[in-house]
From TrEMBL:
Keywords: Endoplasmic reticulum, Glycoprotein, Glycosidase, Golgi apparatus, Hydrolase, Signal. Residues 381-707 form the Glycoside hydrolase family 31 TIM barrel domain. This is Neutral alpha-glucosidase AB. It catalyses: N(4)-(alpha-D-Glc-(1->3)-alpha-D-Glc-(1->3)-alpha-D-Man-(1->2)-alpha-D-Man-(1->2)-alpha-D-Man-(1->3)-[alpha-D-Man-(1->2)-alpha-D-Man-(1->3)-[alpha-D-Man-(1->2)-alpha-D-Man-(1->6)]-alpha-D-Man-(1->6)]-beta-D-Man-(1->4)-beta-D-GlcNAc-(1->4)-beta-D-GlcNAc)-L-asparaginyl-[protein] + H2O = N(4)-(alpha-D-Glc-(1->3)-alpha-D-Man-(1->2)-alpha-D-Man-(1->2)-alpha-D-Man-(1->3)-[alpha-D-Man-(1->2)-alpha-D-Man-(1->3)-[alpha-D-Man-(1->2)-alpha-D-Man-(1->6)]-alpha-D-Man-(1->6)]-beta-D-Man-(1->4)-beta-D-GlcNAc-(1->4)-beta-D-GlcNAc)-L-asparaginyl-[protein] + beta-D-glucose; N(4)-(alpha-D-Glc-(1->3)-alpha-D-Man-(1->2)-alpha-D-Man-(1->2)-alpha-D-Man-(1->3)-[alpha-D-Man-(1->2)-alpha-D-Man-(1->3)-[alpha-D-Man-(1->2)-alpha-D-Man-(1->6)]-alpha-D-Man-(1->6)]-beta-D-Man-(1->4)-beta-D-GlcNAc-(1->4)-beta-D-GlcNAc)-L-asparaginyl-[protein] + H2O = N(4)-(alpha-D-Man-(1->2)-alpha-D-Man-(1->2)-alpha-D-Man-(1->3)-[alpha-D-Man-(1->2)-alpha-D-Man-(1->3)-[alpha-D-Man-(1->2)-alpha-D-Man-(1->6)]-alpha-D-Man-(1->6)]-beta-D-Man-(1->4)-beta-D-GlcNAc-(1->4)-beta-D-GlcNAc)-L-asparaginyl-[protein] (N-glucan mannose isomer 9A1,2,3B1,2,3) + beta-D-glucose. Residues 1-20 form the signal peptide. It is an enzyme of class 3 (hydrolase). Residues 717-805 form the Glycosyl hydrolase family 31 C-terminal domain. The gene is 106067511. The keyword Protein biosynthesis does not apply. Its EC number is 3.2.1.207. One of its GO terms (cellular component) is Golgi apparatus. Residues 79-319 form the Glycoside hydrolase family 31 N-terminal domain.
Length: 939
């Protein structure tokens, strides 16, 4: 392919939207078809209880596939926090199957807890972990997980377990006798015959009427898609099993898909696909794969919340069926008329092209426990530097240093705060990363210094593809040291990306990741500085001239592993190495910032994520909420979507509404395609510019809350941006709702995402709850849906009664200038006149907090008294931050006096004002340090 034809392909893709024909459907994937064609029935996998081996926290037992006499080993573990782990592996594989090493998706080896064996009864092996149980049915193999003796999750309940054992393709294979073939080959079952035999209860006598050899079945040893042939030298090695959630109507998670938050049935569509891909202008509301994936699913009902994490790095698909959602309209009406109430159940079917079955079952029993359990496995989000939570200004591309200077100065001219400006691929010398275009960025150090003087940062893009150019030192160094991914013939893989002919470092190897990390040292990344941070794009990886625009599956890594075994972890290993490089550059003292497009379970430990190449359309604004909720549910807390949409030109109303919506989403960045019109916020018409500016400024006032929530995220695994059922788990009216969300436990947000709408329907959860408009403190009662006014200047957002939210209201041009600014405490009282909250402070940029150098305060309001109690204050830690104002909403009568009692017991009378109409009391200038104990009394 010539460079001009490459650009033609790119232009076509970016002009006319997603080309679905470039990506496989299930019918075009051999292993997907094989698993999906299985019919429910009696499983041929049988436990051999006489082989049971038990230790204090684990079990091992042999499993036999009676259809072909292949043996497997079932391993079970009890883990800390109420988690069961189940692994199924071949007993005697002819090659080692890939298992993800600890330190990639799992942050560490999980801590085991005592697993009590209760014995065998009626063909069942019973194990207890605290109050939870795992029951292994012997014949056929089935695993049931119970909370308080109530089944909540089952494996292989439908008999869809299929583990394609390793085998060799031999010319002499077909000459063997049919009896030997029936032992060695994978069965080809007739579902009707099996179902009939199952009804007779004779599973172990089940026979297969028709047996085919592996050579006879299509797509087993070679597969072709769009002219690309996958050699598949190891043959069929896929694994799959059904996972049922009895009692659950709704399941969530398995990002990334541009779909509703509550996952839909796939009865009439393809399964949800899990395969990291570069998808231009992705479609909405379908199960197509996108840039990153986390194989983690959560089921929730009024009683319990449970989760399943299927640790596998290969391509996966997940079918979802529901006995409620899959019913016809007539059936649902009939149930309503007759009064029938069928117990809901969601059945899922997971299958992966390679690897093993390695499943973690998280038994909650509530949402907060699920988040803690998942974080204990894959890790937490480290606290970002404060500036990273502020506003980021980006486009492909800011042309040169003068362009950067003009944008920076014009943002200041229009009084629009921002903290980071970004440079896309055009800033480099011919798409060679770690370089600068000498004609356009001749003095990058000066540019970085000018930004730093205002407390601002710069992010440059560094993609993993290296231009194959003998004059490009990074490439030649990687090539000469043997660090590059190989093709199926063992030569350095040569594919096409932005620079043209490119090669890719093999990030699966630690020494390669260490080499990559060293490229970010100031002496290696010439022209960089300590206020430069990094954006890893195209790291799925994206390969323009390969099948599905990514690595061919038979590409080989330095270990000899095929890409098909490890594909979904490649992107994460890229950004982990980048994170390590920034850590090393800052002498392990300064907190890095890395943004990634591709991701996997565990990504949260080293990168923020954005949702890729979205479009400047109302539908793409609407999808941001469910996509963000899915990411936050799966541990990817520091995430966002391009404000305004990457492609196309949003109208002024859409862009204005997008700024409003994004201020309450974790990662806040505007970005646009190179062919779009310039749309920095100051270019909007004056009315819209003012609204967008006010929205951005509002984000800055809430930075103390964001910072507190990310502190809690690191400590507890709780997402900052949460589905409503996290805080209101028994309110079934919020289970399917994804037009709104709650920030922490305090701020209910319902963005306006429809063109021309000046009202919004807001559901306020919890009948006993009070909700206060964050701008006017107008009061709303829970348990009702209300149509509220939402003119263009208004974002519907409400603080929950009973919470105290820290804010900083002084206007600054960057977050880095806010470190010592005073706090305003917003107290919204519940029906009992109480409220609680916290304030967290540290130095906002270094890792000193991890050594205890921070202060955490708990605020409480009760009996007309606001108390500040210091929960933690590190030795030698101090802050200049003080309390400038206290706003208390829900005060029914004006107090006569307001007194401050300091830590030395001295008393000071404070000035105050009271609004009778809004019931808001404002206390002026308490003047106390936020990290000291004090009390404010109302009399």
């Amino acid at each position: 392919m010539t460079l001009s034809s490459l650009w033609l392909v790119v232009l076509i893709c970016t002009t006319f939207g997603v080309h679905k024909e470039n990506f496989r459907t299930c019918d075009q994937s051999g292993f997907c078809k094989r698993h999906r064609n299985l019919q429910p029935g009696i499983s041929t996998y049988v436990v051999q209880p006489s082989t049971l081996r038990i230790s204090k926290s684990s079990l091992m037992v042999d499993v036999l596939n009676t259809a072909n006499n292949v043996r497997f080993l079932l391993q079970g573990y009890g883990l800390q926090h109420g988690i069961f782990r189940v692994k199924l592996v071949e007993a005697e594989p002819i090659r080692e199957r890939y298992e993800i090493p600890v330190g990639i998706s799992l942050v560490a080896e999980p801590v085991q807890e005592e697993l009590v064996y209760e014995g065998e009864k009626d063909g069942k092996l019973v194990f207890t972990l605290n109050k939870n149980k795992m029951i292994i049915n012997v014949n056929p193999l089935r695993l049931d997980f119970l909370i308080n003796d109530e089944p909540v999750t089952s494996l292989n309940a439908q008999g869809l377990l299929k583990f394609e054992h390793t085998r060799q393709k031999q010319g002499w294979f077909s000459s063997l006798g049919s009896s030997v073939i029936s032992l060695l080959s994978q069965p080809f079952r007739e579902s009707k015959k099996e179902e009939a035999e199952a009804a007779d209860g004779a599973a172990e006598e089940s026979k297969v009427e028709e047996v085919k050899t592996a050579d006879d079945e299509p797509d087993m040893w070679e597969e072709t898609f769009k002219g690309f042939t996958d050699s598949k030298p190891n043959g069929p090695v896929s694994v799959g099993v059904d996972i049922a959630f009895p009692g659950f109507r709704y399941v969530y998670g398995i990002p990334e898909h541009a779909d509703s938050f509550a996952l839909k049935t796939t009865k009439n569509t393809d399964p949800y696909r899990l395969y990291n891909l570069d998808v231009f202008e992705y479609d909405l509301y379908n199960p197509m794969a996108l840039y990153g994936h986390v194989p983690f699913m959560v089921a929730h009902n009024e009683k319990n919340t449970v989760g399943v994490f299927f640790q596998n790095a290969a391509e996966g698909w997940i079918d979802i069926q529901s006995n409620v959602a899959d019913k016809s309209l007539f059936s649902n009406l009939a149930d309503f008329v007759t009064g029938k109430s069928e117990v809901p159940q969601t059945d899922t079917h997971w299958f992966f092209e390679d690897g093993i079955i390695d499943i973690f079952v998280l038994l909650g029993p509530g949402p907060k426990e699920i988040f803690q359990q998942y974080a204990s496995l894959t890790g937490n989000t480290p606290l970002p530097p404060l500036w990273a939570l502020a506003y980021h200004q980006c486009r492909w591309n800011y042309n040169d240093q003068e362009d950067v200077r003009n944008v920076d100065q014009t943002m200041d001219k229009f009084d629009i705060p921002y903290d980071v400006i970004w440079l896309d691929i055009e800033h480099t010398d011919g798409k060679k990363y770690f370089t600068w275009d000498g004609s356009r960025f001749s003095n990058s150090i000066e540019m970085l210094r000018n930004l730093s003087s205002k407390g601002r940062k710069l992010v440059s893009i560094v993609d993993p593809h290296l231009k194959r150019d003998d004059n490009y030192k990074v490439f030649t160094d990687a090539r000469d040291k043997g660090l590059l991914v190989k093709n199926s013939n063992g030569n350095d893989f040569d594919g096409w990306c932005w620079p043209g002919s490119s090669s890719w470092p093999d990030f699966l190897e630690k020494h390669v990741r260490d080499w990559w990390a060293d490229q970010f040292l100031l002496e290696n990344y010439q022209g960089s500085a300590e206020n430069l941070y990094v954006w890893n794009d195209m790291n799925e990886p994206s390969v323009f001239n390969s099948p599905e625009i990514t690595f061919p599956k038979d590409v080989k890594h330095l270990s000899g592993r095929e890409n098909r075994e490890v594909h979904n972890i490649y992107a994460m290993l890229v950004h982990q190495a980048t994170w390590d490089g920034l850590l090393k550059r800052g002498n392990y003292k300064e907190r890095p910032f890395v943004l990634t497009r591709g991701f996997f379970a565990g990504t949260q430990r080293s990168a923020a994520v954005w949702t890729g190449d979205n479009m400047g359309e109302w539908s793409h604004l609407k999808i941001t909420v469910p996509m963000m909720l899915s990411l936050n549910l799966a541990g990817i807390h520091f995430s966002g979507a391009d404000v305004g949409g990457f492609f196309r030109n949003p109208d002024t109303e859409l862009l204005t509404r997008w700024y409003q919506a994004a201020i309450f989403q974790p990662f806040f960045r505007a970005h646009a395609h190179i062919d779009t019109k310039r749309r920095e916020p100051y270019l909007l018409p004056e009315e819209n510019m003012i609204i967008a500016r006010d929205a951005i400024k509002k984000r800055y006032t809430y930075l103390p809350l964001w910072y507190l929530l990310f502190h809690k995220s690191e400590k507890t695994g709780m997402p900052p941006m949460r589905p409503l059922w996290t805080e209101f788990p028994k309110d079934s009216l919020v289970f399917e709702r994804d037009d709104s969300f709650i920030l922490g436990d305090a701020i209910l947000v319902r963005p306006v995402v429809d063109q021309g709408h000046t009202t919004a329907n807001v559901y306020f959860p919890a009948e006993q709850m009070l909700w206060y408009d964050i701008d006017t403190y107008k009061l709303y009662h829970g348990g009702h849906e209300v149509t509220v006014d939402a003119p263009l200047s208004k974002l519907p957002a409400y603080q929950r009664g009973g919470t105290i939210v820290p804010r900083k209201l002084r206007a600054r041009r960057s977050a880095s200038l806010m470190y010592s600014d005073p706090f305003t405490l917003v107290v919204c009282l519940d029906k009992n006149g109480k409220a609680m909250g916290q304030v967290y402070v540290d130095d906002y940029h270094s890792f000193d907090y991890s050594k205890g150098s921070y202060a955490l305060m708990e605020l409480s309001f009760h009996n007309f008294k606001l108390e500040n109690n210091v929960l933690h204050k590190g030795d030698g830690f101090s802050t200049k931050e003080w309390v400038e104002r206290v706003i208390i909403a829900g005060v029914n009568t004006e107090p006569k006096n307001v007194h401050l009692i300091k830590s030395d017991h001295s008393r000071v009378e404070l000035g105050h004002s009271y609004d009778q109409n809004s019931k808001v009391l404002t206390i002026r200038k308490p003047g106390v340090n936020v990290a000291e104990k004090w009390i404010i009394n109302l009399h």
